[in-house]
Amino acid sequence: MFRGKNGDRKGREKALKKQTTGKYGNTKIKHSGMGMVSCWTALLSLTMITGSILIAYVMRGKTISVVGGLGIISIVMAGSGLRVAVKGFRDRNRNYITCRIGVVLNSVILLGLIIIFFRGVFK
Q1: Which pLDDT score is estimated for 78?
Q2: What does pTM read for this prediction?
Q3: How far apart are CA 123 and CA 117, in angstroms?
Q4: 74 to 11, 13, 40, 95: CA distances (angstroms)
């Protein structure tokens, strides 16, 4: 599939072109799988945060351990979602828009929760 030492670069370009083109032109590029996982992780983390706010409102602040536990789990999930989104950029011949969305969402969630956590600790 690849040429010898002299034409190695040209052979790699040709092989890469064969991977990205179909019978009648360019094939539809799929989304990165890791990026989609990252977006779902951000959505689940955001759902847990809103659920903990709702629980705290309904129970009038008497469920500190449940809300704190959900907050810590959301921090861990946002961190792992950020890591997965960065890993998603390694996929070859994929659409990276889901990775970009996952990086932004997870970093905003992570930064916001860390600020809330340290504000509560050092108040």
Answers
A1: 94
A2: 0.73
A3: 10
A4: 47, 43, 13, 27
Q: How many beta carbons lie within 10 A of that of residue 38, not counting itself? A: 29
Flag residues of the chain having pLDDT under 50.
1-3
pLDDT of amino acid 9:
67
* Predicted local confidence at residue 21, as pLDDT: 63
What amino acid is encoded at 29 in this protein?
I
**Neighbour tally for 15: CB within 10 Å:** 12
* pLDDT value at residue 41: 96
Q: List, in order, residues 6 or more apart from 43 with CB less than 8 Å away.
A: 105
Per DSSP, the residues of 36-56 read HHHHHHHHHHHHHHHHHHHHH
- Cα 44 to Cα 40: distance, rounded to the nearest angstrom: 6
Q: Which residues contact 37 (CB under 8 A, 6 or more apart)?
A: 81, 84, 88, 102
Report d(CA 51, CA 25) in Å as an integer. 47
By three-state DSSP, how is residue 82 classified?
A: helix
Report which residue type is found at 50: T
